[in-house]
Design goal:
two-stranded parallel ribbon, binds NADP nicotinamide-adenine-dinucleotide phosphate, 35% helix, alpha/beta, 7-stranded parallel β-sheet
Length: 285
C-alpha cells in the first residue's frame, strides 16, 4: 500500500472515537465507509463525506456485506457497546463482533486491521506496563479480561493486525464530559467509582491522532495513553473538585495498572494533551 488514498472501512463509525476518525480520514482524502446499526445515524456519516453502511456486527451476513461493499484496504474496528454501560453486551461484541469482522476480512482478502482495546487489563503493579507485560489473570488462572484477549488474538491473527490499547478516554463525548458524561455527573454528587485504581488517561483527540498515525504502523500491540499515570486517590478528588462536588466516596473496582506510551512515542505519536492534570484545568474551566 502506497501513500495515496486508501479505502477504509470504519466499523463503529458513529462512536466517540469512530466519528472523529471518520472525519479525519475523509479530510486526509481517503475513501471512507462507516458503519452504524441505526438508519437515523447515516445522515451524520454522509454529511462528513463518508459512505454510510448499515451493519450489526453480531450478524455475520451484515459484516460480510459491509466488507464486500467497501472492498477496504484497511478495516478500523471501533465497535464498543458502552453508551448504556452494557458490559456484558460489550464483551459479546468484542468476542463475536470481532470474530465476524476478522472472518469477513479474511474472506475479502483484507489482512490489515486496526482495533480498539484497553490499556488497563495488565496484571496489577505499581510501575508502568509496557506491551510485554502479561494481561491480568483471575485467581483460578483464567483471563481476567477474556473478551479483550479474544479480540486481540483475533485481530493479531491477521498479517497486519494492530491493537491499540487506549487509556481511559476523557474529553467531549466521553464518560468524563461535563456535557452529560456519566462519571462527571456522579462526581458532582461526590462519588467516584474507578474502573481501576491505577489509571492512565488519554484525551479523545490524542486517541484519534494515534489511530490515524497507526495506518502505517506494523503489526502488534501499542499502548495509547498520556504521560501522567495516576491513581484514583489523586484523580478522584480532582474530578469531584472540577465537577463542583464534595467528596463522599472514592473507590475502584480493581487495582489495575497504568501503562507506558514509550512504544507509541517510538513510532512517532506524541500526545497533544500529555498530562490530564494540566488538560483538566483547561477542559473543565
Ligand atoms: N477507553 C475508554 O475509556 C472507552 C472506550 C470506548 C468507549 N468509552 C466510553 O463509552 C461511552 C460510549 O462510547 P461510544 O460513544 O463510542 O458509543 P458505543 O455505544 O460504545 O458505540 C460505539 C460504536 O459501536 C457501534 N456498535 C455498538 N454495538 C454494535 C453492534 N452490535 N454492531 C455494530 N455496531 C455496533 C455503535 O454504532 P451504532 O451507531 O449502531 O450505535 C458506535 O458506532 C463514551 O462516553 C466513552 O467515554 C470509553
Amino acid at each position: 500500500m502506497g501513500g495515496g488514498a486508501w479505502s477504509v472501512l470504519v466499523a463503529g463509525g458513529t462512536g466517540v472515537l469512530g466519528a472523529r476518525i471518520v472525519d479525519r480520514l475523509v479530510r486526509a482524502g481517503h475513501d471512507v465507509f462507516a458503519t452504524t446499526r441505526r438508519p437515523e445515524r447515516t445522515a451524520s456519516i454522509e454529511a462528513c463525506g463518508a459512505t454510510a453502511l448499515l451493519m450489526d456486527a453480531l450478524v455475520p451476513a451484515d459484516v460480510t456485506r459491509a466488507v464486500e461493499t467497501s472492498r477496504p484496504d484497511l478495516i478500523i474496528h471501533e465497535l464498543t457497546d458502552l453508551a448504556e454501560f452494557d458490559f456484558g453486551g460489550n464483551a459479546r461484541l468484542r468476542v463475536e463482533g470481532t470474530a465476524n469482522l476478522v472472518a469477513a476480512a479474511r474472506a475479502g482478502g483484507v489482512d490489515h486491521m486496526i482495533a480498539q482495546s484497553i490499556a488497563w487489563a495488565y496484571e496489577p503493579g505499581e510501575d508502568l506496563a509496557d506491551e510485554t507485560v502479561p494481561l491480568a489473570r483471575a485467581e483460578d488462572g483464567s483471563p481476567a479480561f477474556g473478551s479483550v484477549e479474544s479480540l486481540e488474538e483475533a485481530v493479531l491473527s491477521l498479517g497486519r493486525g494492530v491493537v491499540l490499547r487506549y487509556g481511559m478516554l476523557y474529553g467531549p463525548g466521553t464518560w468524563y464530559s461535563p456535557k452529560g458524561g456519566a462519571y462527571y455527573r456522579r462526581a458532582r454528587e461526590g462519588e467516584v467509582v474507578a474502573t481501576t485504581a491505577w489509571t492512565s488517561f488519554v484525551h479523545v483527540e490524542d486517541a484519534t491522532d494515534a489511530t490515524v498515525a497507526a495506518l502505517t504502523w506494523p503489526r502488534g500491540v501499542v499502548n495509547i495513553v498520556d504521560d501522567a499515570a495516576t491513581h484514583v486517590d489523586e484523580w478522584g478528588p480532582a474530578l469531584v473538585a472540577v465537577a463542583g462536588g464534595a467528596v463522599s466516596s472514592i473507590s475502584a473496582r480493581a487495582e489495575g495498572r497504568a501503562a507506558s506510551n514509550a512504544r507509541a512515542r517510538s513510532l512517532g505519536w506524541k500526545p497533544r494533551h500529555p498530562s490530564w492534570r494540566e488538560s483538566w484545568s483547561q477542559y473543565y474551566e
